[in-house]
Amino acid sequence: MKEFPKNFLWGGATAANQFEGGWKEGGKGISVSDVAMFKELKTEKDLNDVHANCDITDEMIDAALQSDDETIYPKRHGIDFYHHYKEDIALLAGMGFKVYRMSIAWSRIFPRGDENEPNEAGLQFYDNVFDECLKYGMQPLVTMSHYEPPLAFAREYNGWYDRRSIDFFCNYVDVITKRYKEKVKLWLTFNEIDSIIRHPFMTGGLIESRFSPDKFEEVCFQAMHHQFVASALAVKITHENIPDAKVGCMLTKLTYYPYTCKPEDILEAQQKMRSIYCYSDTQVHGEYPAYLLAMYKNKGFDIKMTKEDLEIMKAYPVDFISFSYYSSSCVAKQADGLEVTAGNTITAIKKPYLPSSQWGWQIDPIGLRVSLVDLYDRYRKPLFVVENGLGARDTIEEDGTINDDYRIDYLQKHIIEMYKAIEEDGVEMMGYTTWAPIDLISNSTNQMSKRYGFIYVDVDDHGQGTYKRSKKKSYDWYKQVIATNGASILNAKQG
Fold first, then answer.
1. Sign of torsion, CA 236 241 244 245?
2. Catalytic residue among 20, 148, 387, 417
3. 9-490 falls under which CATH superfamily?
4. Of 20, 192, 268, 417, catalytic
5. Global pTM?
6. In the annotation, is 192 catalytic?
7. Per-residue pLDDT tens for 131-152?
8. 287 catalytic per annotation
9. pLDDT tens sequence across 263-286
10. In terms of C-beta density within 10 A (0-12 exposed, 13-18 middle, 19 or more buried), how is residue 62 classed?
């Protein structure tokens, strides 16, 4: 009988900024996510303008700070996990989760980011959350920074562009790893660390309008260098505070194929993939790849890095590699006239052979296998798929049921390809957490109607609703997958 490895970790993944709420409660400071505006994206052009959807100016922040509105700024309420955490964790545990990936909101522990002493109420909140997880035998996998730098850190220090960011973050990491050393053994440093290039405010606290346009790319890479050093130091601190902990990196696994077999398109795809792998290359090998340094030189970038920085990065590489995978895309040397579609915080050339989600993301289960093989061949370290899911509009039937067979189909096909990567390709995997097991605010679009969960939350794009939780059809399906360690789908006849 086919099944996954014995200790495979099944579960789901969320992020504090997208579902926690309680944005001014318990001493929490305002984060960059609390000023992210909801936009009615009515056209494909609107959806594909990823940069505009994520960009922000000081004037926009000023307007946000003058308002307590939670409709325009929906990440302020999320799905109110802050008050529903016991109910929500019980629902997740009801599916038999072995692991639950979540994040700690930095601004709930250090409201401004630069304080010396932490906010005890924030620390206690996560103590309560972890206790609930452990009560059900559900292991927390905790992301230290997931798209929510404190707003004061962004405005007063220019976020991760300022070298002092390293010390601020290390102080935060030291506090949380000491506090939760008996409760959390699996950690991730930065969620999708590569995303600072695509949405610099959300990831790095960088306000683009403050910088010269011709210098901003260099600013992003300088900020990313500080994150690389901080990530290495986070590995060091975590291992010192929790000797049996494992610390991973996390990247956006954007998988690109050449649009044709033209050598020019193949080279373009190789170069595009290098632009993805450079972030994990640095964190896994502990040093900058030669091709990234060559890019800095060729573009005339002057990235400030000390000898000590490079020694730290080399001494403390990550223990494992985690990543998000939703879809794949194409690249071509000459893209004029080719159809473009949306993806995970990107736009790229549409592949003619694949279906797409309602948001234009192309569905490519085999691409997950390709990604797993490429990453394992490259690094020979354990892999963890920590985000994979389908955003869709769900319909509640008259009897209250939600028949999300499309979600089941998407996940089932990806899980099968994941199994093939393990059994046929020899890939070493730690586990799999779907994005997201319960409905939450979508990241770049700030929509609630783009739903991912096995659990429906009654709230709409404008924050209206009862916030009542209810199970979708996929809830019992995933429960069975976990209970049988994947056997329920691996041994079923595929239609």
1. negative
2. 387
3. Glycosidases (3.20.20.80)
4. 192
5. 0.94
6. yes
7. 999 999 999 999 999 999 999 9
8. no
9. 999 999 999 999 889 999 999 999
10. exposed
